[in-house]
Amino acid sequence: MSEPRPLHRLFGLSWMDFFQGTDIDVQTELDLSAKQQFIDVILIRRGPGPVPRPLPDGFEDLAPHNLVTFKSHQEALDCWAVWELVGHFVNYRKQVSPSMQDLLPEDHFRLFAVCARFPQNLAQQVGLTRLREGVYEVQGLGLVIRVIVVSQLPQHENNAMLHLFSAREELLRYGRDHYRLHSPETSTLLYQLFEAYSEDADMSQKLQEFVRQTIDEILQKLPPEERLKGLPPEEILKQVPPEDRLKGLSPEEAFRALTPEMREALLRQLKTNGSSAKPE
User: Fold this and answer.
1) Among 33, 119, 121, 220, who pairs with 77 as Cys (CB 3.0-4.6 Å)?
2) Range of the domain at 145
């Protein structure tokens, strides 16, 4: 994977929100090579204490360093994707170890592959060991890769964040309704996520309608400054009737708000009106 795509970026931001206020440090879109190759998420455990909230299924036994690759509903988790993840692990282990001669132990690292849909091609090429509903493992060459299939995860509170990336209406709805907010920016994050879904031409008409309704609901909950973020002033002004733009301003404040050209035009108009007025 080269340049990160919107869903991948939002996937990383979701983990940052999930671990807000814990001793898990989340790094996203980390470039691990001279030719840009991004790992989606790295979860770094900074302390030995327990995580103060239930983790999604399959992530319960975090190591000090946890590399996570993500495949959305638009992508396939196949052997090549697994090889890429292993390559990321090799590069990352070299970078965080004291030296090439003193590499951190292998058990300090865990590899996770999260996919929105079941990886049919991968299952045909390698042995997928089912641990429980939605959680599998791939083993080989001394490595263990945990595979999390979002569409198969139970609708439990701890899985709500991952269900936001399932692209199935019933699971998206569950994720939207049950994901617990951990930072003030979460509403904006959800808005951006559903905006990304709204631009997906492959989604069914029913799902597109659900996405549009969700965007409207989230917008109503966003504070005004978040709704207007990124809009140029001229676009904002288009939404305000002319008679409302000057409300609350004194005549002096309204005059100062005009451009020099507008002030000059207004003064000319006032002068013309004054000279044409007839005395009583």
Assistant:
1) 119
2) 6-176
The last residue of a domain, from among 176, 192, 211: 176
Measure the CA–CA gap between 41 and 7, rounded to whole angstroms: 12
Backbone angles phi and psi of 263, in degrees to 5: -60, -45
Q: What is the enclosing helix (H) or strand (E) of 27?
A: strand 24-31
Residues 261 and 150 in one domain: no
Please say whether the beta carbons of 148 and 119 come within 8 A.
no
247 burial type by CB count under 10 A (0-12 exposed, 13-18 middle, 19+ buried): exposed
Q: What are 66-90's pLDDT values in tens digits?
A: 999 999 888 889 999 999 999 999 9
Q: What are 94-107's pLDDT values in tens digits?
A: 999 999 999 999 99
H/E segment holding residue 137: strand 135-140
Report the distance separating Cα 120 and Cα 107, nearest Å. Answer: 29
Asked whether residue 206 is domain-assigned, the answer is no
Report the half-sphere exposure of 82 (CA within 13 A, side-chain side): 22
233: in domain: no
Residues 51 and 132 in one domain: yes
- Global pTM reads 0.72
The three-class DSSP label of residue 44 is strand
Residue 117: partners with Cβ closer than 8 Å, 6 or more residues away: 73, 149, 150, 151
Whether residue 273 is contained in a domain is answered as no
Among 145, 160, 176, the domain boundary falls at 176
User: What are the two backbone dihedrals, phi and then psi, of residue 153, each rounded to the nearest 5 degrees?
Assistant: -70, 140
